Structure formats: structure tokens, C-alpha cells
Amino acid sequence: MKFFIDTANLAQIKEAQDMGVLDGVTTNPTLMAKEGIKGEANIAKHYVDICTIVTGDVSAEVIATDFEGMVREGELLAKLHKQIVVKIPMIREGVKAIKYFSGKGIRTNCTLVFSAGQALLAAKAGATYVSPFIGRLDDVSTDGLSLIEDIRIIYDNYGYKTQILAASVRHPMHIINCAKLGADVATCPLTAILALLKHPLTDSGLAQFLADAKK
Ligand code: G3P
């Protein structure tokens, strides 16, 4: 399973990249705003900066919600860097835009996916990635992980190549369960990736080994 980091924070992206386990980055307008990145030129520069830190795919989201606007923005984003994947919302015009981009060889990430039916549409339109938001489903008392399971079954039934990118990941058990269910990618906050490292028996075992090495 690939690990993407879900942030626009350059320091956190560098930290994850330095660990050697990072396969890509996802951003969204909320994450960009959190870093104070405003204005078309600054936003474009920030995406390029991210692409220079990582070697994998970097999702950059369109703001337009009409077909023409999404195509215009998406084409500009795709031209910024070869690692850019155009992130498109799961709406009717978005499905059309994904189909258009797929025909042009521009890679897409279909975002704001909350049902298996939406994921099926994204795959039929030729999305490179589909982003089911598992944490936000959990927030409304719906099992986010069972959506990953359903999408995996549906995609495998028909051999869809769209990669399942589990998003809105909140904690290490989300990551582990996504891996068990066969998600292709999990995009996670740095805290969730670092939490995978931790085990008290590792800490106490290492402390013992270091103490014994001095004997
Ligand atoms: O990038 C989309 C998604 O990962 C957002 O996560 O935590 O805002 O639900 P969250």
C-alpha cells in the first residue's frame, strides 16, 4: 500500500519524505488555506515546491464546479509539473471533467466520495484515483472502512484500474485496516504515520538491549 501525506505543510512533507516511506501528497483547499497560501501564483508555486520535495504524485484540487472551469483549471494545474494529479469533486460536472481528462492522458483524483455508487462512477469515467473519506463517514456513525471493502470488491469484479486512495484517515488503525482491505493508497496526517512506529515493547526491548550492550 502506498503512503501519501495529507497536508500542504512543507516541513511535514519533508519529514515524511526523510523517513523514506512517502509515495505522494494530497492537498485540498482547506489544507492550503491552513498554510496561508493565497492567490493563483502563490498556490501554483506551492504545488511546484511540494513536487520538488517528493518523487510521487501530488494531488492539486480545482475550485471551479462547472465543466469548463474545471477543465481550464485542471489543464493549468497539470502543466505545472509532471507529478501533479488533478483533484476533482464527485459531482455531475466533475464526472464529465474526469472523463475528459482521462481522454487527454491527464491523471485525476476524484474527491469527496462517500458511497460505492460514486466510486463506480469515478472508475467508469476513468479516474486515476478515487478518494473515499473514511474519517468523515465515521464522524456521522457510518463505517468508513466498509466503504473501502465495497469499492475493492466492485473494482476487482470488473478489473477497474482506478486506485483506491483512502482519505480522511485519522489514526493508525485506519491505516492498518485499509491495508488489510486492499486499499491501494492511504493518505494520512503525519501524526498517523508516526503513530505506526510506536510500541511500548519496542521501547522497553531497546532500552534493555542498550543496557545489556554495556555489560
Ligand atoms: O484530503 C481530503 C481528506 O483527507 C480530508 O480529511 O480529516 O478533513 O476529513 P479530513
Task: Give a written overview of the molecule.
It is built from 11 helices and 8 strands. It is globular and about 70 Å long. It is 55% helix and 17% strand. The relative contact order is 0.12. Bound molecules: SN-glycerol-3-phosphate. Residues 6, 26, 28, 133, 135-136, 167-168, 187 line the site of SN-glycerol-3-phosphate (G3P). SN-glycerol-3-phosphate is lined by residues 6, 26, 28, 133, 135-136, 167-168, 187.
Keywords:
215 residues, alpha/beta, 8-stranded parallel beta barrel, binds SN-glycerol-3-phosphate, single chain, 55% helix
Write the layout of secondary structure elements.
Elements: E1 2-6, H1 10-19, E2 24-26, H2 29-34, H3 40-53, E3 57-61, H4 67-80, E4 84-89, H5 92-104, E5 108-113, H6 116-125, E6 129-132, H7 134-139, H8 144-158, E7 163-166, H9 172-181, E8 185-188, H10 190-195, H11 200-213
Parallel strand pairs: 1-2, 1-8, 2-3, 3-4, 4-5, 5-6, 6-7, 7-8
Helix pairs in contact: 4-5, 5-6, 6-8, 8-9
